[in-house]
Amino acid sequence: MADGFDLWHHGDLEVGDGLVDLAVNVRTGTPPPWLIDAITASLSDLAAYPRQEAAVRAVAVRHRVDPERVLLTAGAAEAFVLIARAFRPRHAVVVHPQFTEPEAALRSAGHMVDRVVLRAEDGFVLDPAAIPAEADLVVIGNPTNPTSVLHRADDLRELARPDRILVVDEAFMDAVPGEPESLAGASIPGLVVVRSLTKTWGLAGLRVGYVLAASGLIEQLAAVQPHWPVSTPALAAAIACSNEHAVAEAAAAACDIERQRSYLLDNLVAGRTYGVPRAPFVLVQVAGGAVLREALRAKGYAVRRGDTFPGLGPDWLRIAVRPEDVVDGFVKVWRDTAVDL
Questions:
Q1: Burial letters for 266-302: b for 16+ Cβ neighbours within 10 Å, e otherwise?
Q2: Are 125 and 148 in contact (CB under 8 A)?
Q3: Contact (CB, 8 A) for 136 and 115
Q4: What are the φ/ψ torsions at residue 257 (nearest 5 degrees)?
Q5: SS3 call for 258
Q6: What CA–CA distance (Å, rounded) separates 248 from 251?
Q7: Is the predicted pLDDT of residue 341 greater than 60, yes or no?
Q8: CB under 8 Å, gap of 24 or more: what pairs does 104-111 form?
Q9: In the structure, how many helices (H) and strands (E) does the chain have?
């Protein structure tokens, strides 16, 4: 616990046998068959130590950067641990509400962390002026988990300083059609972009992600990373998910998610959202949210509690976007349950 918030709580703890999962932000129907085939084909190489060169090149080509600006990691979570180990900030700031793993990693490494908490009344939108000028490490998600807000790239650029590390968690950016506010591949002093293959491709169990940054920052992060951090099957996944076919499929999936999110929001009669949701989940404030979450669970549906995110409380629930047929069943139960409370 940190100031009353369980930073180590994640949505997978909400899921249980027999529950329809609207708590975990992994796209349904994944991984696709072609990706399973690529991972399976790599198993014949398990006797050899993993070699990253081909996967690093594939990611570099995907983002049009030099390979020296890519670091593969065992999921985005490892990237946050490496950031906490590699850098020695005097004044670290995490922008909340957001994914709590970066702050948890910083605290575990012994760093003091200040929070800038965005307000619901402002649509959870970033005001660059709210970040203390003396902050030398700033972490923000884009689009942000759990608020689903997509911040303007120009606002994020305003946060950059020659003596500041700016960490932008883009784990859900490929679920936004066109990735319009992405900073992946941008040449900005101190910028560290974290990406994940977990969400779009259904690879939570494989653990694969990567960091994009200037070569000097990549060297610092690699210096505190253990040998062979990414397995051979995960490297195969990184290659497969970085080619033109995969990028096109992810773009099509992002459009599907956009349609499904609109359908979900149009049918959620109880609860209120703030800002403009752009990610594959929505954040809803509803009176008696904690009781509603348990009642939904009793009726077969899991949603993510919001009170573990700094800046939120028990009346906040995060709901993953799902196909329309799943939403139909969920919304009926949601409406009936909300009325009963």
A1: eebebbebbbebbbbbbbbbbeebbebbebbbeeebb
A2: no
A3: no
A4: -65, -40
A5: helix
A6: 5
A7: no
A8: 104/2, 104/7, 104/8, 104/80, 105/77, 105/80, 105/81, 106/80, 106/137, 106/139, 107/2, 107/7, 108/81, 108/84, 109/81, 109/84, 109/85, 111/84
A9: 11, 11
Q: How far apart, in whole angstroms, are the C-alpha atoms of residue 231 and residue 208?
A: 9
**SS3 for 24?**
coil
* CB proximity list for 322: less than 8 A, separation 6 or greater: 22, 28, 260, 264, 330
Between 129-133, 178-182, 268-272, 316-320, the lowest mean confidence (pLDDT) is in 268-272
Could you report the per-residue pLDDT of 46-63, keeping only the tens digit for each? 999 999 999 999 999 999
Two tokens, residue 146 = 């759990």
Q: What is the pLDDT of residues 287-333, one digit of tens each?
A: 999 999 999 999 999 999 999 999 999 999 999 999 999 999 999 99
**14-45 pLDDT per residue, tens:** 998 899 999 999 999 999 999 999 999 999 99
CB atoms near residue 231 (< 10 Å): 17
Amino acid in position 42: S
DSSP code at position 241 = T
Q: What are the residue ranges of helices labelled H in 25-118? A: 33-41, 53-63, 75-86, 101-108
How much is the pLDDT for 269?
82
3-state secondary structure 272-317: ECCCCECCCEEEEECCCHHHHHHHHHHCCEEEEECCCCCCCCCCEE
Nearest-CA neighbor of 186 among 165, 214, 163, 167? Answer: 214
Which residues lie below 8 Å from residue 325, measured CB to CB, with a gap of 6+?
A: none
DSSP category for residue 148: -
| pTM for the full predicted model | 0.97
